[in-house]
Structures are given as structure tokens and as C-alpha cells.
Amino acid sequence: MKKTITKMTAIVLAAALSGSTVFALGQKDAPTGEKVYKIGVVQLVEHVALDASYRGFVDGLAEEGFVDGQNIKIDYQNAQGEQANCVTIAQKLVNDKDDLILAIATPAAQAVANLTRTIPIVITAVTDPASAKLVKSNELPGTNVTGTSDLTPVEAQIKLAKQFVPNLKTIGFLYCSSEQNSKFQIDIAKKACAELGIKYIDATVSNSNEIQQVTQSLIGKVDAIYAPTDNMIAAGMATVAIVANPAKIPVFCGEEGMVVQGGLATYGINYYELGKQTAKQAAAILRDGKKPAEMPIEYLETCDLSVNADTVKAIGIAVPAEIQAQLK
Asked: Both 182 and 226 in a single domain?
């Protein structure tokens, strides 16, 4: 009996010195008796919208009874906008045999989904999972992937541009050529422009270093710029504003964070709430044993109007009366 106690004491002491816990993932935690689930997170890049979706996810999990450091352990990784980093991080999370992986933004989701067909994956800030080949259909995924879409009311955003600029003849579409979610939105925007009789110019970038030059190339050619929920442009929105605002070119955006960074206006979704909605799906998988294959992609039903008052002054544009009424 004395030898057994001494052996157990040595194990606990070794664990304490190494900073590790004495329970294994999926086993009973000695103090609480709860399972501890390991959740891996891969986020494409840091910017207002994606950061908000992650905060919403963590807070949403807490509301569902899953608290980091108690019954879950979150391993958060940021790819800093590099696709190669997404793949490296995805490999790590899969090798770690996480119980669930959260992928924030389309490239991050594709990197993880390409590496595992067994670990449940929840996604957020992905505009159209079906066209990104993450699911068989948004209504019935049929894979180990489910989550939430950040599809915004693109048509309403183009109409908003027309409200601010009644004589809008040509608009520039500013986005990253390699982002599937951006292409999906731009196709919708082009159809909306065709219905409104607005011409358009594609202004694409392949890396963040091109944002300033490509934005400058639109001066004198367009009456306004439209940037969808494009991760590269969102992360470099301050650069876009530095060029566009002095040139008196209004920039209409896909989401509120881009407006905060210097854009003029948007009808956008709340990414924090989107993250919380994703957390409910994750909780259903962990707690209730639900299968991602049978869980439809979900959408936020409401959008918010955002107008940057400082940008309004900087470019000297009038806020239409109907827009003013919505802001009150």
C-alpha cells in the first residue's frame, strides 16, 4: 500500500512540474468528473470580422456550458493570411486528434476539410460552403463539415451605393482573385449592377502588397468602389481608405468592420452573433452527438446598416434622408 501511494505521488508531482494535467482527453477529470474536449481553431487572418466571430464562438460555447480551461481546451491558431500556414495548422490539429475543429474563413476551412473526413468540422465566415466544395449541399452537408455562412445582402449593398451616389455610372469591384467567397459575391453584385444599369470594373489583387496600387488604378475610372467580405481587403481596409477617401471615392463594404476601418457604408451581418450561432452547432455535436452531415448550414436572418460619419465628412458626401431615418 505504501509503495502504491508513493508511486501515485510521484506521477502527480511530475505532472505538476511539467505544467500538464493528470487526465487524458476524453477521460474523466478527477475533480469534476467531466470529459475535457479538445477544440482546435484555425483562423485565416486577423481582422475585425473574423476576430469577432472567434470571440462569439468562445462566448457562445460558454453559454452552452463549455468553458475553456474547464471542460474544453481550445487550441487557437492564426494563419496570418497565408494559405500555406492554413495547411500546416490543419495538419497539426488533425494530428492532435482534436474532438472538433473550428475553421474561420474559406481557405482555412478548405485546408482542414482536405485532411480529415472523420473529425467534426464547424465553419464560420464562409460565404457559400457548397461552391467551396466543403459540403455536398448547404441544406444537407453530407460530409463532416457544417457551420454558418456569412453571406450578406449583396443586392442591398449595391442599391445602397446607388442611394448614396444617384448618378452612379461605374463601380469598381475590389477583391482578391483567389478567394472563392469573394468571387461568389461579385457574381451576385454583377447581376445587381446589370439590373440597375451600372457598369463595373474588376480590380483584383493577389496579395496584400497590391492593394494600394490597385485602388489607385481606379481613381478617375469609377464613381464608387465595392469590396465584398473579402479577407485580404478587410485586413487591408485602412490602405484602401487612405487612397479612396482623399480622392472622394466612396467605398461600400461587405461588413461593418470594413466600414469602421474607413469604408463609407454597408448592410452587414454581425460576426460576433454569427460566431455564437456556430457555437450552438458545436455544442450539439459535442454534447448531443449530432452529425455534421445532417446539420444544415445556417445563416443570420438580420443585417445592420452601418455608416462611417468620419468618412462621410472626409469625402464630402450627403447622407440620403431615407438612410438618415434608418440610423436614428
From this structure: yes
